Amino acid sequence: MTHASDMTHVVLVFDDNRLIGDLYGQFDQHLALIEQRLGVDTTARGNQVTIRGPHEACARARDVLEALYARLQTGQEVTGGDVEGAIRMAITLDGQLALPTLEPKTRLKLAQIATRRKTVVARNPAQDAYIRAMERSSLVFGLGPAGTGKTYLAVAYAAALLERGDVARLILSRPAVEAGERLGFLPGDMREKIDPYLRPLYDALYDMMPPDKVERALTSGAIEVAPLAFMRGRTLANAAVILDEAQNTTSMQMKMFLTRLGDGSKMIVTGDPTQVDLPPGQTSGLVEATRILRDVPGVVQVTFSHEDVVRHELVARIVKAYDDDGREKLIARKAPA
């Protein structure tokens, strides 16, 4: 129960009237979402918003609106997903995934990746820690379920490095193993066989860079999209290297890939350890690598959960249901007969 003494109100005034419609959302839907998630009441009159509710909730709502307004001031758009992400960040501000160099925050400040086509802003503490880890470490593991932005953010960060000239090449790779299928069963030449497995990487890439620049970079070799098997024997220097769906690597493949890292390079490995499509009894290279490298200096592991899913909210509930079912089956197997 909230006592009257715990209640307060905050008045915010935003200077640029041109941004108010985008800040509040169509029919004030962004304000309604803030009210629903944070348990506050908002009253908007022109460029002034009054927030009423518990002290902590009002402070969070203020941080959310100020962060979204700052985003609009830089020319970026604000969607419902962005509002949801800012709310999540505000709620968990004090409990962000800690990195040794991650500075404490007293205000809502979201990590972001800027490319020529768009700016991608973290939507939850896991994404915030993930972006900061990529900035500060040469090898980053992004672990967790589908829909958390692991691959998308990795490609965005790699594209930003390439555009800035911080690396000379961008290399995107995946093991060509999916749900029991093998390349030999697919029609066409090698490129046509490989492309379906790499399509998510292409999609993210075209989101970050103009299509003509992507095509030129693919032709020149500045961007390379290749299956994991093509990495053997190479040294990947001055490059941003991404291995996606890494749970489907074998132990030897993962070791081979990790030891390709050369001078001036960044390596990002993403995957979901619970979705391994390798033959039964075969150890996932991702699971093994995260165990072996857990305490190695310079290697950072960021783990996402169903709470970090940024697709449709139903996806988060689906992931959670499967996680719960998996835990129940594990407990049943361990229970004495």
Description:
With 337 residues, this protein is of the alpha/beta class. The chain has 2 domains: 4-91, Ribosomal Protein S8, Chain: A, domain 1 (2-Layer Sandwich); 112-333, Rossmann fold (3-Layer(aba) Sandwich), CATH 3.40.50. 42% of the residues lie in helices and 17% in strands. The protein contains 11 helices and 11 strands. It has helices at residues 20-24, 29-38, 55-73, 80-91, 125-136, 150-164, 190-208, 211-220, 251-258, 285-292, 313-334; strands spanning 7-13, 41-45, 48-54, 112-114, 119-121, 139-143, 169-174, 223-227, 239-243, 266-271, 299-303. A 6-stranded parallel β-sheet has the order 8-7-9-10-6-11. A 3-stranded antiparallel β-sheet has the order 1-3-2. It has a two-stranded antiparallel ribbon with strand order 4-5. Helix 2 packs parallel to helix 4 (80-91), helix 5 runs parallel beside helix 6 (150-164) and helix 9 crosses helix 10. It is globular. It starts with 6 loop residues before the first strand and ends with a helix. Residues 94-106 have low confidence and may be disordered.
Give a quick rundown of the structure.
The chain is an alpha/beta fold and 337 residues long. The chain is built from eleven helices and eleven strands.
Gross morphology = globular
* Amino-to-carboxy terminus distance: 46 Å
Could you please say which CATH topology of the largest domain applies here?
Rossmann fold
Uncertain parts: 94-106
Number of contiguous helices: 11
Evaluate the radius of gyration: 22 Å
N-to-C SSE string, H for helix and E for strand = EHHEEHHEEHEHEHHEEHEHEH
Tell how many strands the DSSP assignment holds: 11
Beta percentage is 15-25%
Going across the major beta sheet, what is the strand order? 8-7-9-10-6-11
CATH class of the largest domain: Alpha Beta
